[in-house]
Amino acid sequence: MTTALRSSLDRWLDDAEARLDAASLAPRPEQVGVVEQSGDGIAFVRGLPDLSLGGLVRFEGGATGFAHALDEERVGCILLDLARVEAGEEARALGAALATPVGEALLGRVVDPLGRPLDDKGPIAAARFDPIERAAPGIIERDLVTEPLQTGVKLVDGLFALGRGQRELIIGDRETGKTAIATDTIINQRRSDVISVYVAVGQKSSSVRQVIEAVAARGDPSRCVFVVAGAATAPGLQWAAPYAGVTIAEYFRDRGGHALVVIDDLSKHAATHRELSLLMRQPSGREAYPGDVFHIHARLLERAAKLSKDLGGGSLTALPIAQTEAGNLSAYIPTNLISITDGQIVLDSKLFYEGQKPAVDIGLSVSRVGGKTQAPVLRELAESLRLEYAQFLELELFTRFSTTLDARTQAQIDHGRRIRAVLTQAQYAPLPLAEEAAQFLALREGQLDRMPLDRIEAFKQALAGWLSERCAPQMERIEADRRLEDADREVLRGAIGDLVATLAPQPADARA
User: What pLDDT is recorded for position 28?
Assistant: First the structure.
């Protein structure tokens, strides 16, 4: 035997002896219960008196669940897979809470709430496993929400700006563009340092695939994590998905970074919670929801926060999505979520079918934080935009019954129609801050009032290239400083005026 081989063998033996000496050979107590009843994704277990809420349970047949309801004599467990559990099986408490892997290795991956890969990229080397249930940061641990989160959607950034650390609800009827706004926000983070986590709860596979493909084609998927618990998965996974997604996002926030979590959607999560609670025979209340349905969403969304500088100054922004029926915002789950969050973006089906997209109802939408976080250039240019637009909508409604209008009223209506045309935006086309500011500047200066309404779309399409050729330094300064200096304003105004003249030349007698 060579000297090198003998030395290597000796080191291995020494290491093995050290591990054996460090190992504890003392007996460890193990809790073992018996399944009393099971079915429909739940199981009642008797004989686990010390099991805590959320504690993991392994069943004899290989299935896994976690404690969701604790009674005096038995425990109600939610199953995390579709494996069959029979009455009479043994159930062992694992002595740990439900956890999900976190870390840089999840970036660019599609996983389920337990961190198991759903793509074809192999296993995930997680930094660690964190429990999905964590306490929200306390008041002392939080800081003011002062930094904007740019969505790239003009209507949102200009009228209902979001801040890093805010919780903004996106709510509306089905098929009105709720997920589209959230997807555009994720795509727009390719220009920022924000990590995005998209959580799909009870969604169709085709819908989830559409979001993933859109982000892959137009955004930066290497800075995103997709947590998927589709409609065909076990109810337990659907219930755990939002908490797992927030835990994954908290890893980046707690390291001083910035994260965005989109939960699509909490209406289906509430329905899953109601289903499981009814199966466990828990008392039901309004609309058959159990009494703790407010609490499960409050403790989830309260985890979104801007941390203090002592804790690294990271932020976690939450964009939960909820669905209404026939625009009823006074239903139980919508009112709960509206009261929990820091504002809501309400989408209207009538506006959507009229072709106004994003179909945001500016009268019902609000951001209770955004005004303090809005980029200064947008705060200056879009300060009066919401009021002007609201007055136009009201005036347009009343003038439908009038055949003649005075010049002042007609000018106000014409300006309002141009505001609506500018705020209209195609899906999957979020704009950089400087381009948003340029369009709002054209509105504020009244330069678009000289252009025919049917040429506004051509103006928007040509503006980015036009300004990049003529005003590149000014656009770069706006993007970097988020402000509009007087000198830059004059240069942009002149360039925009030239573009307006090019797209909508005046007749010869008008120029004379």
Answer: 61
Q: For position 384, what pLDDT does the model report?
A: 87
Tokens of 72: 């005096």
Distance CA 414, CA 400 (A): 14
The answer to whether 409 and 433 have CB atoms below 8 angstroms apart is no
Q: What confidence tens digit (pLDDT) does each residue in 153-166 have?
A: 999 999 999 999 99
3 found inside a domain: no
The pLDDT assigned to 40 comes to 87
The whole-number average pLDDT for the span 120-131 is 90
The percentage of residues in the chain with a pLDDT greater than 70, rounded to a whole number, is 92
Catalytic one among 209, 218, 299, 368? 368
For residue 289, give the nearest of 311, 307, 320, 266 by alpha carbon: 266
The position carrying tokens 């099991």 is: 51
Helix H or strand E encompassing 77: strand 74-79
The verdict on 115 and 137 lying in the same domain is yes
* Structural domain count of the chain: 3
Full-prediction pTM beyond 0.70?
yes
Domain that holds residue 38: 32-96
Q: Are residues 311 and 191 in the same domain?
A: yes
Q: Which residues contact 253 (CB under 8 A, 6 or more apart)?
A: 259, 305, 307, 314, 315, 316
Q: Phi first, then psi: what are they for 261, rounded to 5°?
A: -120, 125
Domain boundary among 340, 374, 408: 374
Range 256-261 average pLDDT: 96
SS3 1: coil
User: Does 1 have pLDDT greater than 60?
Assistant: no
418 residue type, one letter:
R
Q: Of 51, 67, 96, which marks where a domain is finished?
A: 96
Verify that 212 and 302 share a domain, yes or no.
yes
Rounded mean pLDDT, 302-320: 96
368 tagged catalytic: yes
Contacts for 45 with CB less than 8 Å, ≥ 6 apart: 33, 34, 35, 36, 57, 74, 75, 77, 91
Does a structural domain hold residue 5? no
